[in-house]
Structure formats: structure tokens, C-alpha cells
Design a protein that fits this description.
The chain has 243 residues and is of the alpha+beta class. The protein has 3 domains: 97 residues, no CATH class; 59 residues, no CATH class; 39 residues. Helix content is 14%, strand content 31%. Strands 1, 2, 3, 4, 5 and 6 form a 6-stranded antiparallel sheet that branches. A 3-stranded antiparallel sheet has the order 9-10-11, with no helix packed on it. The longest helix has 35 residues. The chain is rod-shaped and about 140 Å long.
């Protein structure tokens, strides 16, 4: 029917991450069956359509309900139509703002009409909420706006003689003449190991060997104690024998 209108709202974003709600309205065209006009409002104000005539339908469908024309829609000169002030975007964002739409998935079937925004690739400003480290040492930040961004790369170093490194305390080591020059690279490549995120290294002590060493040390302590006890007894005997 000519008075059937269907609308959906999509959030668009300017260069500063400010959200500008865009309402897309589909209205039947009176000129051709299976054709529709599309109207846009950004931030409550009508937005200019690029190279579209008011007498020509914006989108048309074939007899199978597939869209045949008007798949790509571009809105230009948006700053002149965005409130609060003509010609400017809120907070001084970059101009002009251009919005491109792809209506390729829009169909016309014998069903209850509805218009739903499926995807959009803009996003608002966000703050870093957490981060992850993969096996290759790449650190990615997770932001409050749902975006993930690569931030840093962890470097690893191999030494000819790791035992020659000088302990600086707090699990820190420095290069020395004995350790040789470092070979720097990235994790999970070449001769470098990989990084495990959010993992606590277990003890690398050989419990069996250390337990055996403890028994040996304990036996040595007992033997030395007996030597001292015997020596003490001899000294007391000498003291008693001397008048």
C-alpha cells in the first residue's frame, strides 16, 4: 500500500567517535510496482542523497524479490544537515561526513514488512579494558567499544651461554662476556619458544634429586654431630684423668 512506511535506525559515528543516529525509511514509490524511495535522517535532520532524482525510485526489485537497482547509497554533505548548527559536526569532528550504505541484502517478499539494520562498521570511542598475549608475543588490547587492536610485540633473546648471564635479582638477568651477544627475535619462530598467556610457571626443580640430596646432607649432619659428641666425651675423660 502507498501509505506503508518501514524504518530502521543505525548508529553512525564521526571522526571523534560521537554517535549520530541515522534513520532509514523505505516508502513505496507510486511510479513503478516493486520500487521504493529511501529517505534518511541523521541526528534528526534530513540528509542529502547523492545523485538521486525525486522522480526516480531509489531501489527496485524483480519478480523474485531480489533488489536490482539502488544497492549502493551514499550520503554526502552531511555536515550541512546535522544539528545543532548547519555546516558543522558536534565537537568539531572532521568534515565532510560521508555515509555509504549497502542494501544488497534487502529483499521484497510476500511477508510482513520489516526493516532491520544488520551490520555497520563504525564504532564509538573506547577505553582499554584488558589485553591478551598470543603465542607469538603479540599484545592485543580489548576496548570498551567492542574493538580489538594490535598494540605491541614482545621480543625474546637467545644467548650462546645462558648460564653466563648475571643475576640482578627479582628474576632479572644482564648480559656478560660469558653469556655472549644476544640473538633477538619474536616468539614462536626459529629457535625461540612460545609465550603462554595468563599462566604461572611451575617449579622446575627435580624433586627426586633434591630429596636424595637432602637425605645425604642430613646423614652428613648426623655423622658430624656424632664426631663432636665423641670428641666431647674424650675431652671430659682427659679432664677427669688429670689430677
Amino acid at each position: 500500500p502507498a501509505n506503508d512506511y518501514y524504518s530502521t535506525t543505525i548508529n553512525t559515528y564521526d571522526s571523534l567517535g560521537d554517535s549520530l543516529p541515522m534513520t532509514v525509511t523505505f516508502a513505496p514509490s507510486s511510479s513503478t510496482s516493486g520500487s521504493w524511495n529511501v529517505y534518511y535522517k541523521i541526528n534528526g535532520t534530513a540528509a542529502q542523497r547523492q545523485a538521486l532524482s525525486s522522480t526516480t525510485p531509489d531501489i527496485t526489485f524483480n519478480s523474485e524479490g531480489q533488489i536490482t537497482s539502488g544497492i549502493s547509497q551514499t550520503l554526502t554533505d552531511v555536515p550541512a544537515y546535522v544539528s545543532p548548527a548547519p555546516g558543522t559536526l558536534p565537537d568539531g569532528a572532521s568534515e565532510p561526513l560521508s555515509v555509504a550504505l549497502n542494501l544488497n541484502n534487502v529483499t521484497q517478499y510476500a511477508a510482513t514488512s520489516a526493516a532491520t539494520a544488520f551490520t555497520q562498521n563504525g564504532y564509538s570511542t573506547g577505553t582499554l579494558t584488558s589485553f591478551t598475549v598470543d603465542k607469538g608475543g603479540r599484545i592485543s588490547g580489548l576496548f570498551s567499544n567492542g574493538q580489538t587492536k594490535y598494540l605491541y610485540q614482545v621480543a625474546l633473546a637467545n644467548f650462546i651461554s645462558p648460564t653466563g648471564l648475571v643475576s640482578e635479582g627479582n628474576s632479572l638477568y644482564s648480559q656478560s662476556y660469558s653469556s655472549g651477544q644476544p640473538a633477538v627475535g619474536v616468539a614462536n619462530s626459529g629457535n625461540f619458544g612460545y609465550i603462554t598467556d595468563s599462566a604461572l610457571e611451575q617449579s622446575n626443580v627435580n624433586i627426586s634429586s633434591e630429596f636424595t640430596n637432602m637425605i645425604i646432607a642430613q646423614n652428613a649432619y648426623v655423622a658430624n654431630s656424632k664426631v663432636l659428641t665423641t670428641e666431647n666425651s674424650v675431652l671430659r675423660a682427659l679432664e677427669t684423668a688429670i689430677p
